[in-house]
Amino acid sequence: QIEVLPIPRHDGVPPVFFLIIFYDRTAARATERIRTDFVANASHELRTPLASLIGFIETLQGPAKDDAGARERFLEIMRDQAGRMSRLIDDLLSLSRIEMKRHLPVSEPVDLGDTLKKVGDQLAPLARQMSLVIELDLGAEPARVAGDADELIQVFSNLVENACKYGRSGGRVILRLRTGEEHGRPIVDASVVDFGPGIPIEHQPRLTERFYRVDVGSSRAMKGTGLGLAIVRNILLRHKARLLVQSEPGHGATFTTRFGRLS
Ligand code: ADP
């Protein structure tokens, strides 16, 4: 959209100069598009398990009414579908809570070493279930950042959960902290490293899109919602931190978060 404004002159002579203003409507349109796509995707993701639940209820009321074996099997599937809807709603609510706080500054000093230790302890049972061991490699330097402690726990929980779910063949998951400098500024890298199948390069730039999954079949089997990395991205935006993904298929994946470090 373009707007042309005459620049007024004070001597009564008609204007000869014009100010041409270009309005960039593309960004606004893209944001609107993302929002409508999101609502459509979220509705679709919720509708799928709901349709399956309704189907099973009707079958249990009709053809399978007196079949005890079928009832057991169907109830099991229905519990899974209800669980899936519940996880989706939890993730959608998390995402919207985080987006609402997006412009609030973070100021609390948080020690990322403590955060990684907590997440390692919390997810040790999940790792055991997947026959994995979580190892900590925290380095010697303190790694304090300005942050929101609960949100940072959520970031690393999501990353470690993914490393356990998708990297289960790798035997171990490493939580690593390294301090350093970037353009003369102190930084800290907190990484989650797995030794699973990794992520093909063409998928890597899209991983943080809402509902994006590399392999829908196996991600669904892994109880994924496709929102975990979108939540990570939004929290990191608020922290002015970056997410770097390194992965060579067949050799695992490393998700690194890079923060400005408090000295
Ligand atoms: P989900 O809820 O499906 O796990 P995420 O947003 O957390 O959603 O991740 C998006 C997709 O990225 C996953 O479905 C999976 O295909 C892929 N992915 C994420 N982490 C890993 C990993 N450590 N190894 C391999 N693939 C991964």
From TrEMBL:
Reactions accelerated catalytically: ATP + protein L-histidine = ADP + protein N-phospho-L-histidine
Residue ranges of domain Histidine kinase in the record: 41-263
Protein species of origin: Fulvimarina uroteuthidis
Span of the entire protein shown here: 158 to 420 of 420
EC number(s) on file: 2.7.13.3
Name this protein carries in UniProt: histidine kinase
Signal peptide: none
Keywords recorded for this protein, A-Z: ATP-binding, Kinase, Membrane, Nucleotide-binding, Phosphoprotein, Transferase, Transmembrane, Transmembrane helix, Two-component regulatory system
One term of GO molecular function: ATP binding
